[in-house]
Design a protein that fits this description.
The protein is an alpha+beta fold. The protein is built from three helices and four strands, in the order H-E-E-H-E-E-H. The chain has a four-stranded antiparallel β-sheet. The N terminus is likely disordered.
Length: 139
């Protein structure tokens, strides 16, 4: 009789453990996470961050970015290729030819995948002309 009670108790514990394991494995949201930190830094490799903004895009746009809706739309328009942020330089803007590097970065999770992107411009004017008002870095 004692073995039967122990067997039933063990089976009940296994059933409970299995049920709690299933409950923990279910997603907490229908949306893949998209949360990034956007930064602008002075310099190249060991650049000093001069401004940064947080951005979360799913399920709603929010964060410290001044226009999270537009920034999320700009990032979504890249279809995961963040170099597309650089695709619309202003051809009518002339910049000085001095070298004072500025680096922009995007780090975090985009649609459930880890991302880390960096681009260095020769100076702030070149950055502004290349990004051409792109909402992602308009902070």
């Amino acid at each position: 009789m004692r073995h039967r009670i122990a067997a039933v108790s063990a089976a009940a514990l296994l059933a409970l453990a299995g049920a709690t394991g299933l409950a923990q494995a279910q997603p907490t949201s229908l949306y893949a996470p998209s949360a990034v930190v956007l930064a602008v830094a002075q310099g190249e490799d060991e650049a000093t961050v001069v401004r940064a903004s947080t951005l979360s895009c799913a399920p709603t746009a929010q964060g410290t970015h001044p226009d999270p809706d537009a920034a999320c739309a700009a990032l979504a328009a890249t279809a995961g290729t963040l170099d597309a942020l650089l695709a619309a330089p202003d051809p009518n803007r002339a910049c000085p030819m001095h070298y004072d590097p500025v680096t922009v970065t995007v780090d975090g999770v985009w649609q459930g995948s880890r991302i880390s992107w960096k681009h260095t411009f020769s100076n702030a004017c070149a950055m502004s002309a290349t990004l051409n008002g792109n909402a992602a870095f308009a902070f």
